[in-house]
Amino acid sequence: MKEIEVCPSSLATGFTGYSPRAVKLLFDGTEVSPIIDIDFENERDRGQMMENMNNISISGAQEKFSAVIDGGKIRLSREGEQATHILKPAPFNLSLSTRKQIPANEHLTMQIAAQAYGIRTASNGLCFSKNGQPVYITKRFDVTDGVKDCSQEDFASILQMSEQGSDSNFKYHGCYAQIADAIRRFIPAWMPQMEQFFKMVVFDYLYGNEDAHMKNFSLVNRDGECFLAPAYDLINTSIHIQSGSDLGLTEGLATDIEKSDAYERTGHPCRLDFERFAERIGLPKRRSDKVLDMFMNIPLETYSLINNSFLNDKMKRSYRRIIEERKGRFVRMSD
Length: 335
Known about the structure:
Blueprint: H1 20-27, H2 46-53, E1 65-70, E2 73-76, E3 85-88, H3 102-117, E4 124-128, E5 134-139, E6 143-144, E7 147-148, E8 151-154, H4 155-158, H5 176-186, H6 190-206, E9 218-222, E10 225-228, H7 261-266, H8 271-280, H9 285-294, H10 300-308, H11 313-330
Antiparallel strand pairs: 1-2, 1-3, 3-5, 4-5, 6-7, 8-9, 9-10
Helix pairs in contact: 3-10, 5-6, 6-9, 8-9
């Protein structure tokens, strides 16, 4: 496989494995090899993997597998064993030509969210099969010291959305204001959580995440206290497939706010639309302006992370192009 020259978690240069900070955040201080003994592309391992998949909730088209750290190695968890991590290899759907780039894309997008914008995210990184194929790994934020210590409920469940008949796309229905209204309803000290949610919605737009649906936002309940879950499943979907929508929900930001003339004319929201959305969900202007100002320019740190990422060169160019196009839409002036 290609020699590792940057940390497979933080993307900091000068590391042939996980950096000390990554070891602390992702593996609770345990030194772990980035090489795994699982070949997700090999049919001989498929039976074990299918059994493992049944042990966790599967959402969306990308397969997920529960995992543990054992003797400094990452392995699939066994039946009845509490998983501490989740593995997401390249999707098994062979019709997606860029599928093998998806783990590196999700890892990069999550790192940009955390490092360039200060968004609270689930700890994450990459590990690699022996043939060098990247596999996304994330630490479960509902498990501490090997014990599940809180409950998590996504907003499709909170809003009592479920599959009706043949409608398997129920999680894409609705608007982001519905999530905001639920945050205000279930979190007593909701303002800081709302600001975090608002930042996540703006980030998803600017970074081409057209799959930011109801199941990709959750509330966590720990000892009777509810709070917004760390961001997860952040990915620039636009470099793989065009959904035809800038936002992950069919009704956009909100159904009860007026769209800007730029939005009406082009079909793409601009800063004014997010200002109106912030007002609709109860954020004071000084708070929303502080968030929106962060997105008026692409941070240099974003470009450094893209350059250091495990995407191939073609996908790195596509990633930069998408976010620059989105930034151009965002900063447009509108009445």
